[in-house]
Specification:
226 residues; 6 strands; Rossmann fold
């Protein structure tokens, strides 16, 4: 019996924070400050381990609040204001982030951002990565009912890419990216650049240091055109 031909990967879904831009510490710091303004002491280390989840998931993990409670809404709003004012202007892209996106486009992939960021934060982050004009489309937490590690954002990105789950691959940097992709039936390439080690990223089919590392090995990676 002839083995089935594996599906051809036609789309790459890209996480942004920790994957294209070095922003995970900044997000954690903004959360800690916003909680502190409301008189709630949360540790940076605990928040940092949860970056990659949406705020709706993170908030009850570190406090007794939900994001849709009055105090939760205040903290979430202040986190966005603090991040935009104090951190976003100095966020730097990882080396070769834009070159990787351009190389994926040159190889014929449809490339769609799949981020837990709010829509009004996603565009500036993509601009910091010099990647916005290179993408075919983008999805944010505004396009999903539930944030990562729920699969909603991945599923929304698949629709934008017009790809079936087995025709797409996610590039991300957290266990929450991997779990969300798995639940959507999508394989993941993971980067260590977001601060997670190999054990945390064990559900990925391949792990690289960051955009520069995958770019250097692209023709030997799971995204090689064969």
């Amino acid at each position: 019996m002839t083995p089935a031909t594996p599906p051809i990967i036609s789309a790459v879904l890209l996480d942004v924070d920790g994957t294209l831009v070095d922003s995970n510490d900044a997000h954690a710091s903004a959360w800690v400050t916003a909680f502190a303004e409301s008189g709630i002491d949360v540790s940076f280390a605990k928040v940092r381990r949860l970056i990659g989840m949406g705020g709706d998931k993170l908030m009850p993990e570190v406090s007794d609040l939900t994001e849709d409670s009055p105090q939760g809404k205040t903290i979430a709003q202040r986190r966005g204001e603090i991040f935009t004012r104090d951190y976003l202007p100095s966020i730097e892209p990882f080396r070769d982030a834009a070159r990787l996106v351009a190389a994926l486009k040159d190889r014929g992939f449809t490339v769609v951002a799949a981020s837990s960021a709010k829509k009004d934060e996603l565009r500036p982050l993509l601009e910091r990565a010099h990647a916005h004009s290179l993408l075919d489309d983008e999805t944010s937490s505004d396009d999903a009912d539930a944030s990562k590690p729920d699969p909603d954002i991945i599923e929304a990105a698949l629709k934008r890419a017009k790809a079936a789950p087995d025709q797409a691959m996610l590039i991300g940097d957290t266990p929450y990216d991997i779990e969300a992709a798995q639940r959507a039936g999508v394989a993941t390439i993971a980067f260590r650049s977001g601060g997670w080690d190999g054990a945390d990223l064990s559900g990925a089919i391949a792990v690289y240091d960051g955009p520069w590392d995958l770019l250097a090995q692209l023709d030997q990676s799971p995204l090689a055109r064969r």
